[in-house]
Amino acid sequence: MKWLSSRLDFGLLLVLLLSCFAALPLILHPQGLPNGADVLYHTYRAALMDRSWALSDLFPRWADVLYYGYGAPLWHFYAPLSYYLTSLLSGLFAVDALGALRILIIICNLSAGVGMYDFSKRLSGRLGGVLAALAYLFAPYILFTLPYARGAYPELLALALFPWVMWRFTLLQTTRSRRDTALAALCLFLVIMAHNLMAVVLTLFLLAYILWHMVTAQIVTPRKQWRIAIYPYTLSVLAVALAVGLSAYFWLPVLLEAGTVHLQNLTAVDQLNYQNFFVWGDVLFGLVPLQDAGAINALRPVTVLGLPQWVLALSGFVGSIVVIVRVWRAGERPILTLSQSLFFGFCALICMVLVLPLSASIWQGLTPLQYLQFPWRLLGPAAFSLAVLVGMNAHWLQKVARPNWQMGLAAAATALILLLAAPLFTVLQWRYETLNTSVGAYLDSEQDGVQLGTTFTDEYRPADVSTLPGPQPALIDDYRDGYPVDRAHAPDGVDIFARDSGPTSNVWDTRADEAFTLEVYTFYWPGWVASVDGGQVPITPSPNHGFITFEVPAGQHTVSVNLTATMPRLFGNLISILTIIAFFACLRFLPAGVPVDRVPQVTQRQAFGVLIGGAVALVGVLLFMPEPSVLWLNTEPGRAPARTEVRYTFSDEEGELARVTGYDLGRTTFAPGDTVRLAVYWQGRRDDIAINYSSFVHIGEPEVPPLAQVDKLHPGGYAMSEWWSPEEYIYDEYEIKLPADMPAGDYTVFVGLYTCALAPAGDCGNGYRPQVTDTEGQSVGDTLPLTTISVR
User: Fold this and answer.
1) What stretches of 440-568 adopt beta strand conformation (E)?
2) Which candidate, 750, 425, 772, places its Cα nearest to that of 620?
3) If you compute the radius of gyration of the chain from its CA atoms, what whole number of angstroms results?
4) Which of 426, 497, 725, 770 is deepest in the core (most CB within 10 A)?
5) Would you list the domain boundaries of the chain?
6) Domains 440-564 and 644-791 equal at CATH topology level
7) Are 376 and 279 in contact (CB under 8 A)?
8) Phi/psi at 703 (5° precision)
């Protein structure tokens, strides 16, 4: 038993046990996934990758099914690691794409918790590791927004792997070993392959971490020992270089061939303008919002830091500094603890500032930053930094508090983290309990307008495709039947027979009395080559549609098209191959290093305190779960949890269409240039609405053009025609920027609906607007004067 006790990591066991709370959404819903913003995209992508593996294409670049079967280089540009994992999980556990993504969420939860524990225990002991792991895993952005509200599994995977990167690089600075050099490089390689944008952010975070510690090490190192002191940081830079080199086969072609698709769409779409996705301070530092089953669009991103995360991070930072000052006066020099506290404090502050609207000028000036699209993406790195600082509480607990106080405070911190995250344990709108992900079903979804190319911004459409052609029924039927798929389109009088086909190749036998142009229903993209009887012939993309076309001479011939490697791809592959050689050379020639000191176990009182906190949280969740007014809401039909209740009805020619039941407006007095934050609560009046309506908010005076306005394609971002329901309300939030030169005065806030579907063809103008009536049935026109504000 003593041997077992010395080998077991009780802190790690506590993290694994308490991480079960993070699995509650999946436990409460035994199958499928919710209606997160990107869930459908990633589910189809996972199924497409699994199909590529079934066709023995393990590292695909081209996804032939996209865009009605015309294809697109999805895998060339989008980091593929999460889809490799889902394909592997599908094979291991015999599950479909939905099931594989569910398992991936669990793996990410475990990875985030265990990785953060192993990293933080090196900085603040095993108790600090437990607290940091809980703070990170139950940060609202990690726990809820990424896996459920957004369904952004690649980004979740990158953030779940990042603690392992920091752990291995921290160990490398101590051990200076070839083993840790290799493991650090591999961990960073996985992060790079997990998510394009987050890989850049997290790699910069890591480089800043290495540089920070290199500089602080030099400050306290005698000049004669600088060469020895700088050696571990040289190994860290080597590990970063190895990771970048190993992943060169992916990122180098992305950079060099970015112009071959429409990547500029990532920042060109108004709906993804970074200016619309800042987080206001009262939201960022506030409590987790209660989930409301009475809302149609209740599944929204939660963009709060988490109250226990930032409060405990603040206490960890301040407490660490106090302890450092105290022991410094006693003769100790805890440089590492001071360095870590300051670094992660600065990182947390920088991330929080960049999330707030006050950083708009920084985003405007740094164009590359705009590719993040959502400033609140930085909540991930912020959650990491805050979690490390939460772990720093262990320093002052162990230095200042008595053992019994340590137990009580550990219990309080654990319970606080878990209980204040409890409203996120239930996830609403579990829409995709089952999903047909076959090729035919996917192509049906494209034809039905549900999605196109598994993207929202159409960024992976080849550059030569300026006008997207419509679907070809014969081609789609071919895809439904499976290979072979005949993509050829030849003039009348040409005999053509499909000999062979695959995702990136086609072979035909042709016979014609005169030369002709063969059109292939595949979008041209650099790397496609055409051959006639084994000799390469030039390809000319068809006008507008960008199909592969090439000339075939008269007579009988064997013609083919194949996707080959371009110079950037070959160069990237070569760098990766050379890096693999260098990787094993490092394992052979680098020194074995020095052993790392063992971190003491958590004490019995500390472990008991964490367990008590977990038990209190469990009792609280079980006690309040049946009562919707405490942790969850279920607003009754016809009502909405608005600060100000009103009742105005919008009617079209078929009767009552929708109703505004309330609104939230924090204040009514503003200065020119301020932002008016308004939330409108809509209630459907019938569920047979046949057309889509857009919504607007105008600020100004009656009968004159508005001075400020915001329009939305659909109210709340979700309320397409089939979503309106008398049973649930729609939460519709607006941020209206007032002009900097807006004259002082009182102005009306107008709200309305409009559609071009009922306007004359080609002459939408202001669109068709439903009529508005008040509670007494009196008409107020086609625009609702909701409230007034003052500009001073």
Assistant:
1) 488-489, 495-502, 505-512, 516-523, 528-532, 535-537, 547-552, 555-563
2) 425
3) 29
4) 770
5) 440-564, 644-791
6) no
7) yes
8) 70, 10
3-state SS record for 593-646: CCCCCCCCCCCHHHHHHHHHHHHHHHHHHHHHCCCCCCCEECCCCCCCCCCEEE
Answer yes or no: are the C-beta atoms of 559 and 511 closer than 8 Å: no
Task: Calculate the alpha carbon distances from 241 to 64, 90, 206 in Å.
Answer: 34, 33, 12
Q: Is the pLDDT at 226 greater than 60, yes or no?
A: no
Q: What is the dihedral of CA 305, 307, 308, 309, to 10 degrees?
A: 20
How confident is the model over 693-720, as pLDDT tens digits? Answer: 889 999 999 888 899 999 888 888 766 7
Tell me how far apart the alpha carbons of residues 627 and 622 are, in angstroms, rounded to a whole number.
10
Measured between alpha carbons, how far is 195 from 79 in angstroms, rounded to an integer?
5
- The Cα–Cα gap between 610 and 606 comes to 6
Query: CA 553, CA 151: separation in Å to the nearest integer?
Result: 51
- Report the amino acid identity of residue 746: D
State the distance between the two ends of the chain, measured CA to CA, in whole angstroms: 74
Answer yes or no: pTM beyond 0.90: yes
The CA-atom distances, in angstroms, between 449 and each of 16, 75, 443, 470 are: 43, 22, 10, 12
Q: For 440-564, give the CATH class.
A: mainly beta
The span from the CA of 238 to the CA of 250, in Å, is: 19
For tokens 């502050």, what's the residue? 349
Which two structure tokens, joined as six digits, stand for 116?
Answer: 């953060």
CA angle in degrees (0–180, nearest 5) for 473-47-498: 40
Q: What crossing angle do the helices spanning 226-246 and 567-589 adopt, rounded to 10°?
A: 140
| Neighbour count for residue 580 (Cβ, 10 Å) | 13
SS (H, E, C) 711-743: EECCHHHCCCHHHCCCCCEEEEEEEEECCCCCC
Specify whether the CB–CB gap between 209 and 344 falls below 8 A.
no
* Interatomic CA distance for residues 719 and 420, integer angstroms: 30
Q: Is 771 helix (H, G, I), strand (E, B) or coil?
A: strand
Confidence category of residue 627, pLDDT binned at 50, 70, 90: low
Burial class (CB in 10 A: 0-12, 13-18, 19+), 482: exposed
Q: In CATH terms, is domain 644-791 a member of 3.30.1490.20?
A: no
3-state secondary structure of 159: helix
Tens digit of pLDDT for each residue in 523-542? Answer: 999 999 999 999 999 999 99
Bridge partners, residue 535, by sequence: 532
Burial class (CB in 10 A: 0-12, 13-18, 19+), 428: buried
- Scored b (16 or more CB within 10 A) or e, 754-792 reads bbbeeeeeeeeeebbbbebbeeeeeeeebbbbbeebebe
